[in-house]
Amino acid sequence: MKLTSLMMLMILTGCSEMLLLSSVGGVAVSQSPAIKAYNGVDAITIMKTKKDIKKHIYEGIKNETEKSKPNE
Question: Which domain holds residue 12?
Answer without folding.
Answer: 2-68
